[in-house]
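Researcher: Here's the sequence for the chain we discussed earlier.
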Amino acid sequence: METLEELKSIIAGAPEGATLYDGEYFKFENDEYHRWSMVFDIQGWNIDLDPSCEVRSLSDIGLIIELMEQLNKIESVKEECAHPSTTASYTHVTCDSCCMIRTDGGWGCASRKWFDNIESAKFYEKNGFLPK
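Model: Thanks. This is the structure I predict for it:
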């Protein structure tokens, strides 16, 4: 998988009208039967392209960029969060700012620790480490 910067450079380098990328940029157009039959490179040449090859949609790459940026924001909020206010439940509290959970004293080796979610806390309680 490319890094966020590499994906952004793919999108930034896309010529107008391009819809696909596999190291080169392409434009896909349906024929009258709506088959994968009309694929043009940017110079307008009709090329033979099998849709099972490693062609990626530029719109999908754009969505991946958006999701990676959101994930980076969430991770930075979690790193900076001091958990100023929490909402209590029976076995843990949830931070109102970053949504991390802190277990109570009944979680064995996972007691009184902060976790990203309840599943991570349960995994840690059972195995003594977090999944990679």
